[in-house]
Structure formats: structure tokens, C-alpha cells
Amino acid sequence: MTGFPVPLGGYLRISFIDWTGHVAPVLFLCGCNFRCPYCHNPELVTPSGGRLPVPEVLEDIRQRAGFLDGVVISGGEPTIHDSLPEFLSELKSVTGLRIKLDTNGSRPGMLRSVLAGGLVDSISMDVKAPWKMYARITGHGGGPVRESLEILSLSGIPHETRTTFVPDLMSLEDLEVVRDQIPPGSPWIIQPFRGGRTLDPSLEKGTPPDREKLKINFPDAIIR
Ligand code: SF4
């Protein structure tokens, strides 16, 4: 079984919420090229965040495949790993399951590659901020994410876009700019910031957004 070097930092054996309408395990790959201060998975941001045995995990999923609807690949940021296409291909052939990929959209070339290879069946992509605020919020410019969003919206693959709204970092006006960046036909989910453990400890007690206000101001968005 697989010898592809993906750094597996977490394995949730079953989830009912990470892929809408699907019962699916979630694999968390370590390492991320962004540094979002509100990140709830700080242990997965650096590549040294853990090494679970990939062959054993794939075998566990294979044995339960008859009870599962798919597998979610999350992170960290899965697309930074050049071995991702080989890993997805192996995951599909070993388990026979459909795959959803979570991505921050920072590597459009990798996105093109997994789409062209038919290696994923659904994608959730973050659109974290207005393009001009990207560097401040994530540590990276928004150009590649913009390119990925265009690829995704033209791909025909089931997908959704997601924005975590952190009032300490963005205003409602900024969120309106994000909304206007989302292509028509691409579902948009707003994830209200909840506090708790964060990459930047100063946000641990950050201000949570007013959900009702979000619902009123963004009636076309899904508030999660
Ligand atoms: S929230 Fe930001 S820093 Fe954390 S894993 Fe996602 S893209 Fe990386």
C-alpha cells in the first residue's frame, strides 16, 4: 500500500458535518503556506505536526467503505504537497470512495491537476478576504486564490466557497467586498468566528459576530 509521503497529522474516523449530506472520515494533512491568525488548527500549520501511519488509515477506511459516502481531505493545506495527486489516486483506488478536497486556493496549478485527473468529486475553497486585504489576513497575496476561484467556477465540479468572518479583522463592508468576489453560481458559506484556540493567541477571546445581523445583511449566503 501507499508509500506516498503525505504528512498525515489527524484522522477523524467519522464526520457528519464536513461534507454536507455525506458520512465521511476526514484526513488532515499537516503544513500550510498561510498564517491566518484565527486558524483553529495551529498544530496542523507546520509540517512537523504529526505523522500518522497512512497505510493503516487507508486500510481502516477501506474496511468501512460500505458504510461511508466519501472521504474529506483537509488540513493544513493539502495542495502544498506535490505528492497529493498520487495520494488521491491511491485513496480512490483502495477505498473506491468519492473525495472532497478542502483548500485555501493558493495553488491553482495543483487544483488544475487534480481536477484534470478526475481525482476529486467536490471542493470547498476558502475566500478569506477582499483581494487587497489577503496579504494582511493570510500572509500571502490573493492573486493565486483569485485564479483558483475562476478555475473552480468554470470546472463544473460540485463546490462551495467559504469565508470565516472575524470582526476583529474585517468589517461588514469588507465582507460585502468578499461577497462580490464570489462568482454567480458558486455557493458561499459564512463561518462566524467562534474564538477558542487560535494560531494568534490574542484572538482566543476575539469578538464573535452577530449571527442575526449576518443573516439580514447576507440573505443569499449560508451561515454555518
Ligand atoms: S485557517 Fe489559514 S493557516 Fe489555518 S490551515 Fe487554513 S489556510 Fe492554513
Q: What's the shape?
A: globular
**Overall average pLDDT:** 94
Described by strand count, sense and barrel closure, the largest sheet is: 8 strands, mixed
- Uncertain parts: none
What CATH architecture label applies?
Alpha-Beta Barrel
CATH superfamily: Aldolase class I
Can you give a write-up of this model?
With 224 residues, this protein is of the alpha/beta class. It has a single domain (8-223), classed as TIM Barrel. 30% of the residues lie in helices and 20% in strands. It contains seven helices and eight strands, in the order E-E-H-E-H-E-H-E-H-H-E-H-E-H-E. Helix 3 packs parallel to helix 5 (143-155). The radius of gyration is 17 Å and the shape is globular. The site of iron/sulfur cluster (SF4) has 11 residues, from loops. Iron/sulfur cluster binds at residues 32, 34-36, 39, 41, 45, 75-77, 104.
